[in-house]
Amino acid sequence: MTTRSKTRALRCALPLLMAGTAFPVAASPGDNAYVSNQTDNSVSVIDMATNTVTATVPVGTTPTGVAVSPNGKKVYVANTNDGSVSVIDAATRAVIATLAVGNQPQGIAVSPNGAEVYVGNLGDNTVSVIQTATNVVSDTLPVGSAPISLATSASLNRLYVGNLGDDTVSVIDTRSHKPIGSVHVGTTPWNLATGPLGLVVYVANIGSNDVSVINAITNKTRSVSTGDAPTAVATSIIGVPFYVANQADNTVSVINPEGKTTNTVSVGNSPGSIAVDRHSSRIYVANTGSNTISVIDPWTNKVAASIAVGGSPTSVATQPE
Length: 321
Prior knowledge:
Layout: H1 3-17, E1 32-37, E2 42-47, E3 52-58, E4 63-68, E5 74-79, E6 84-89, E7 94-100, E8 105-110, E9 116-121, E10 126-131, E11 136-142, E12 147-153, E13 158-163, E14 168-173, E15 179-184, E16 189-194, E17 200-205, E18 210-215, E19 221-225, E20 230-235, E21 242-246, E22 251-255, E23 261-266, E24 271-276, E25 283-287, E26 292-297, E27 302-308, E28 313-318
Antiparallel strand pairs: 1-2, 1-28, 2-3, 4-5, 5-6, 6-7, 8-9, 9-10, 10-11, 12-13, 13-14, 14-15, 16-17, 17-18, 18-19, 20-21, 21-22, 22-23, 24-25, 25-26, 26-27
């Protein structure tokens, strides 16, 4: 399949597709998860202490990516079908700004210092850079074909962009906004994440049923097998194990540092996003096909709760503080 036809097919499928060792402690009050509901044009707010939905916030059209500022005070939502980003005040749970970005924004990430927000525009192969102090788009960066996911490394001052159209990850210097290089990964990289130190990048490749593990210092990669059609990846709070949501077999793989799957957890239908609560170590999985969030206990690797949210939950992000 050509790059153009692959990208076109994935864009058509996008609304349907996007739908270990740990040290858990009790979740703290006000510790929230945010879920973008693609077909409801809303964000569900989950209190992670009680695993209940406490608010629903209307946003733009077809919200996909969601990210939380490092201080937990702002939530940023990429609205794919109106080319915008909604900025939510976490305290008031209201949209305080709507910012125009590129064509078909998908992935979104906040810089570790909270000064910038990065938005991957799948439709025009760019990343928009937003200055959080002013809510102004200050730069537009060219990347690979069909950028869909983003993650940052604080220790290396880098932004990583997963390009599903050409099977690469673009590497950008966040200080200069200049490209550093491009890393070839597996087939159709759908989602990526960095470890807690920012020295390892994990890329979930939906087309090749594996995760590319990139050494961020050398940009060398190794491949780790997963379940069927991995759509998302996240690490535990200490970096190991890492967790992979497998869309086609409705599971989450728990994978150790050697790349071995130590547990496979059944979740809801078509899991499309995964996040870890930095307080409790619980794993939150957005199930696009069943309109739920599965909450996995990292001690037992079993689903401890299932939370009903809006229509086609696409992404989930947790409050870091």
